[in-house]
Structures are given as structure tokens and as C-alpha cells.
Design a protein that fits this description.
38% of the residues lie in helices and 19% in strands. The protein has one domain: 3-Layer(aba) Sandwich (Rossmann fold). It is an alpha/beta fold. Helix 1 packs across helix 4. Strands 2-1-3-4-5 form a five-stranded parallel beta sheet, with helices on both faces.
Length: 125
């Protein structure tokens, strides 16, 4: 069972997202006032939770922020190192897709780039 915390002010949007995620039978969703960064899983939160949440080190890759389309919000998110953004007014399905994408990225095998000498790679000239 995958865990998702939803900390957004729009209760209708939060309920719709919860229904979508719980409906697949693979998610446990918590509607919270303030996200618990120590709890595993994806966190969906309003942009105003950034100041309240303090340091996001170690959790940035699993946070989806719901922001306004104002360019100031986007700049603030980028500066904080957050890359998963949805906008107020986006359909709940779009938020669901963002959550699923993060879950996939968190479970995908990490592939690194290796540098080999020509001898080790078997490509001597």
C-alpha cells in the first residue's frame, strides 16, 4: 500500500484526489492540515506550506506543490529545489498523474553513467 499525504486548502479538490487514489486499491491517503515529512510516500501540498514545513532536504523528490500560475510562485519553488508542480484549478486527474509519476521515479532503478578507459571498455585503438 502506497502512502500519500494531501495538505491542500481546497477540501473539494482534496476529497476528489483522495477518491481517485484510494479507488485504485493501492493507496492509503491522509488528508492532513500539515504534512509529516518523516512519513514515507508522496506529499501533495499547497505552496504556503513551504514556509511552515521548514527544511525540505531529503523529501523534495517526493513533494508535489500546488501553486498559482503567478510567476513569483514558480520562481519560489525553483529556488527551493522543488520540481513537481501542479496548479490550482488543474483537474484532480492531473494531480493523480503527478503522484503516480513520483512513485514510479522513486521505485525506478538508479542508473548511473560510468566512465571507462578504452582498455576497460574493450575498444583499444
Amino acid at each position: 500500500m502506497k502512502t500519500v499525504q494531501v495538505a491542500i486548502h481546497d477540501s473539494e479538490q482534496a476529497d476528489l484526489l483522495r477518491e481517485l487514489l484510494v479507488g485504485d486499491g493501492a493507496h492509503q491517503v491522509y488528508l492532513v492540515e500539515r504534512p509529516n515529512m518523516k512519513m514515507p510516500g508522496v506529499i501533495v501540498m499547497d505552496i504556503d506550506h513551504l514556509e511552515k514545513s521548514g527544511a525540505l532536504a531529503g523529501v523534495r523528490e517526493r513533494v508535489v506543490v500546488m501553486a498559482s500560475r503567478a510567476s513569483g510562485d514558480l520562481a519560489k519553488l525553483w529556488k527551493a529545489g522543488l520540481r513537481h508542480v501542479v496548479f490550482h484549478g488543474d483537474p484532480p486527474k492531473a494531480v493523480q498523474v503527478a503522484v503516480l509519476a513520483i512513485e514510479l521515479s522513486l521505485t525506478a532503478p538508479k542508473v548511473g553513467v560510468m566512465s571507462l578507459s578504452p582498455e576497460a571498455a574493450g575498444t583499444r585503438e
